[in-house]
Specification:
membrane; 10 helices; Cyt_B5-like_heme/steroid-bd; mainly alpha; Flavocytochrome B2, Chain A, domain 1; Cytochrome_b5-related; three-stranded antiparallel β-sheet
Amino acid sequence: MAPKVTNYIEWAHQTAAEKKTHVSFPQLKYPSLREGGLKDPIQWLEGKAMDDGAEGLWRIRDGLYDFEEFQDKHPGGAEWLELSKGTDITEAFECHHLNPVVEKMIEKYYKRDAKTPRNSPFTFEEDGFYKTLKRAVREEIKKIPPSKQKRPDFIIDALFATVLVASAVSCWSTNYWIVMGSYLTASLAMAWTTRLQNISCSFSPSVPEHPDGFRSQCI
C-alpha cells in the first residue's frame, strides 16, 4: 500500500525530516505521513510502507516474502494481507501465529533479504522475553479443552444480540443512560471485526466504524 504520487512522497519525506527525533524511540526514523493530511488508517499504512523497507512485498524480520498467491488461502482472510502489502508485518506475524509450523510454511514464499534495517524497536530474539513467553503460552493453550475454546464465540454472539436490542431501544428512548448503554455495547462488539473474515464480520456495520479502517489500525 505504498503511495505512488511523486510529489506526495517528497512532501512526506520533507515533513518527516523536520521532526528531529521519534518521541518514544529516538534511535528510529520519525514516521512518514504523521503530520498533515487526513491522518486516517490508510494514510498511516502508506507512511509505514515508506519506512519499512518492504519493497512492495511483505517483510517479516529481515526477510521479504511474496504472499500474492497465498492471500486467498490465508486462514485469517485475504484482506489482512491485502492491507499490509508493502509493510513490515513482523509484529502482527509474531502475535497471531503461535504454531511453529507457520515458520516453515512461509519459507517457500521467501524472495530475498531486506536492504535496510527494521524501523522498529522490537527484536524478537529467540532467547528474548517475548519468544520465551510465546513458547510458554503455546504449551498452556494445548491444555485448554475444546469446549472452552468455543466460549469466546458465544460471548461475542451474545454481545452482538445485545447491540441490536440496545440500538433499537435507543431509537425511541430519551433516557441518557439507555443511549450511553448502546454506545458501550457497540464498542464491545467491535472486538469481532479482528477475527477471521467469515459471516461474523458482517456484524461490524452495526458499530460506528468501517471494518477496513478498524483492521488497518490493528496491523
